[in-house]
Amino acid sequence: MSRPLAPSPLFGPAPIARHTLYLEDLAPGADRLTVEGPEADHARKVKRLEPGQFVTLLNGRGLVADAEVMEARRALVLRIADERVAERTAPAVDVWSATPKGPRSSDLVDALSQVGAASWRALDSARSVVEPGDNKMARLERVAHEACKQSLRAWTLDIHPMGRFDDALAPEPGVAIVLADASGEPYRAKGAARIRLIVGPEGGFTEPELQRARAAGAAMCRFGPHVMRIEVAAPVACAVVLDAEARIHPPSNAAPSQAG
């Protein structure tokens, strides 16, 4: 039987903040769990976790568990008190954007994770400057995991390889394609299960790209009065989309599982 717990930020208001652990190997039905390595070291040395305290566990694939610390020595021994599988945010917003230079790409992924985007894919357009290599993509995966813990999101932001601009315009059933551009109208809810949000480089899209987007039926939308850096523009646009869609999507409307 699950032990009654005070509500946590994930399920509602909480009197105190809990420490969160991101454990990719967390599986449903576990009774006890031993955590070693960096997660355990951080929890023990930095967060000063002690027996009797409760933590929130996430695996990034929807499983959320409440666990009691039984031992906090070299390893953490946890008793699973309660668990649930959270639905994905609906609609799912798949962001295709140019990649910012340097550490700003980490800021982009961190902010998209906090806002609630379903996925991010680097966009290869005419004025794109940065092509993220394997090392950068691996680092962005780690940023997404850390952001998952910080924002208490049950599903990790999916990171996908670079895609071409014309691929971003390819039609797909149940997917509304939205291109961010100052020439467009303010965003209006589309009612689709998935939204593919295309955000260009700071130099913008070329006129031929805009013409191809219009021909493909993409909705041209503006998301603010000023020119924004990529790491600001993409999360802002994503937040506007989610807010508008939330007004017509019931909470139980789960998005299809595919992304990109």
Q: Care to describe what's here?
A:
By secondary structure, this protein is of the alpha/beta class. The protein has 2 domains: 19-85, Beta Barrel (Ribosomal Protein L25, Chain P), CATH 2.40.240; 92-246, 3-Layer(aba) Sandwich (Alpha/beta knot), CATH 3.40.1280. It is built from 6 helices and 11 strands. It has helices at 38-46, 104-115, 134-151, 165-168, 207-215, 230-246, and strands spanning 19-22, 32-35, 54-58, 63-72, 76-85, 92-97, 119-124, 158-164, 175-186, 194-199, 219-222. The strands form 2 sheets. A 6-stranded parallel beta sheet has the order 8-7-6-10-9-11. The chain is elongated, with a radius of gyration of 20 Å. It starts with 18 loop residues before the first strand and ends in a 14-residue tail after the last helix. Residues 1-16 and 253-260 have low confidence and may be disordered.
